[in-house]
């Protein structure tokens, strides 16, 4: 069972980011001032010989909505390497993904979920995707969330990460990451298991609401409205859940990324592409770089 499951997951997911795209909101941390409407920023000064760039992505879009702006293509061409959140070219990428996605020995979804919730999820997967929940019984809840992505987007989603990798390879550029897949998915383990399973069941119970919320996020992203993404996130989580989410998925990771961004930008001009939710706010990547002494300015054309 393990090999077919591994192959199935590899084929279903565009990238590891898609896993988190469903489970976690895209919104950025609350901003004190209005953020200019752009998704790409230039980072210069503080000893950098050449500028680097930070681009905010959304991890899943329908093909008809997907476009790589010319200003993004131009800045990628001007740099010497591409950095995503994780290096999907790493030879151990899939092995680490599978290891991080598997429940500890002795735990299964069937024991974590209430019987009625497990049956609800099993029926949903069988009716809508012709899948047997038993084949995922040793998978962590966020893996089940990833399977629901196509039902939220109602299309075969594409990602900026995959397209940027293709462009970087065509230009002979190296692809790196600001964190490992193990570090990224470890953030999920810091959420209480009850919170994880509750969010999974909530999605299945009200797919229409989950779909509407995700499509609203897409709309705000396409409008390059980083500030506007905040409120929709808070609507989906309790204040306690949002505080935990913000600290776990945004603040802690952003702060861990900054030394890596500094190191790589000093070594060579780099095009950094990370989730748009990591850019704005007082603890966002852009402000943290400013505090380090870098000049960070929006690219509007």
TrEMBL record:
It holds the Pfam family TraB_PrgY_gumN. This is TraB/GumN family protein. It comes from Pontibacter aydingkolensis.
């Amino acid at each position: 069972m393990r090999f077919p499951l591994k192959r199935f997951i590899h084929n279903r997911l565009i990238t590891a980011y898609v896993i988190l795209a469903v489970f976690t909101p895209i919104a950025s941390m609350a901003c004190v001032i209005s953020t200019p409407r752009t998704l790409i920023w230039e980072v210069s000064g503080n000893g950098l010989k050449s500028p680097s760039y930070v681009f905010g992505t959304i991890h899943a879009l329908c093909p008809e909505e997907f476009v790589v702006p010319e200003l993004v293509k131009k800045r990628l061409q001007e740099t010497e390497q591409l950095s995503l959140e994780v290096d999907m070219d790493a030879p151990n990428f899939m092995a680490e993904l599978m290891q991080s996605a598997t429940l500890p020995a002795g735990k299964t979804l069937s024991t974590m979920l209430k019987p009625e919730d497990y049956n609800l999820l099993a029926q949903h997967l069988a009716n809508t995707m012709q899948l047997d929940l038993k084949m995922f019984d040793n998978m962590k809840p966020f893996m089940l969330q990833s399977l629901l992505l196509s039902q939220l987007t109602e299309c075969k989603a594409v990602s900026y990460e995959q397209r940027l990798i293709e462009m970087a390879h065509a230009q002979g550029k190296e692809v790196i990451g600001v964190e490992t897949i193990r570090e990224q998915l470890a953030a999920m383990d810091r959420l209480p298991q009850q919170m994880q399973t509750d969010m999974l069941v909530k999605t299945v119970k009200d797919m229409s609401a989950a779909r509407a919320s995700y499509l609203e996020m897409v709309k705000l992203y396409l409008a390059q409205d980083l500030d506007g993404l905040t409120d929709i996130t808070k609507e989906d989580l309790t204040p306690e859940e949002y505080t935990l989410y913000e600290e776990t998925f945004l603040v802690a990771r952003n702060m861990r990324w900054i030394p890596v961004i500094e190191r790589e930008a000093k070594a060579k001009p780099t095009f950094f592409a990370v989730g748009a939710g990591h850019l704005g706010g007082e603890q966002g990547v852009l402000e943290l770089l400013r505090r380090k002494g870098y000049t960070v300015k929006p690219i509007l054309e």
